[in-house]
Each structure stands twice: as C-alpha cells, then as structure tokens.
C-alpha cells in the first residue's frame, strides 16, 4: 500500500488545517489507519487512529478535543482535521496503515508508512 499525505502548511496558533492521506489500493478498506507525528529532536509519537469501518477512533491526550480523524473508504482517503492548533503541534505528520488497529502505535510494527507532511504552527 502506498500512502501519500498532503495538506500541511504554515498557520498561526488557533487556526485549523486538514491533512489528507490517499492510499493507492482498493483494499484500503481492509486497513486501520493512523496519524503519527515527529517534531525536531523528538521521537515519533502517536496522534490518532481509526478502525477499518470508521466506527472506532482513538486519540493522544495532547490532541483530544481538537483533532478529528475520519475516513472515506470510497475515496481511499483518511483525514485529520486539526483545530485550535498550538505551536507544540509543529511536526512532520505521517499517515500509517495496518490490518490491525492495535498495531497502530509506537513500536507496534506498523505495516505501511506514508511520506510526511510538514505542519508548522507559529505563535
């Protein structure tokens, strides 16, 4: 599965961005999807994940209430709506795919990673 993330950019604190991640295969609906991020000098961290049918979502405490993950299986795309952005949200954001929702975690052995998209939030 090839994943292509887009939608990053430079915004001021308090503004919103929506990231998209398009998958190359029609089997997209077989995969749980997730978003991770990595800030300069820091380790990659989990942000959010969603089950294959979109019925279950999970978030890191740091983004809960501000970010929303969703998916459109007809378009082979997963989204990350990011509201009330903070400077500490600045990072490269990566989408990920795995048949098992439980494996979408740091150290979980994620099967597929996309190239990242940079999000920069200025104060």
Protein architecture, described:
Helix content is 0%, strand content 48%. The chain starts with a strand and ends with a strand. It is globular and about 40 Å long. The protein has 123 residues and is an all-beta fold. The strands form 2 sheets. Strands 2, 4, 5, 6, 9, 10 and 11 form a 7-stranded mixed β-sheet that branches. It has a 4-stranded antiparallel β-sheet with strand order 1-3-8-7, with no helix packed on it. The chain has strands at 3-6, 9-12, 17-23, 32-38, 45-50, 57-59, 67-72, 77-82, 91-98, 112-113, 117-122.
Keywords:
123 residues; mainly beta; seven-stranded mixed beta sheet; 11 strands; 0% helix; 48% strand; globular
Q: Topology, pairings included?
A:
Layout: E1 3-6, E2 9-12, E3 17-23, E4 32-38, E5 45-50, E6 57-59, E7 67-72, E8 77-82, E9 91-98, E10 112-113, E11 117-122
Distance between the termini: 37 Å
Fraction of helical residues:
under 10%
Low-confidence stretches: none
Mean pLDDT: 96
Tell the overall outline: globular
- Helix and strand composition category: mainly beta
Q: Report the sheet with the most strands, covering strand number, pairing sense and barrel closure.
A: 7 strands, mixed
**How many strand elements?**
11
**Residue share in β-strands:** over 45%
Count of helical segments?
0
Whole-angstrom Rg: 13 Å
In N-to-C order, the SSE pattern is EEEEEEEEEEE
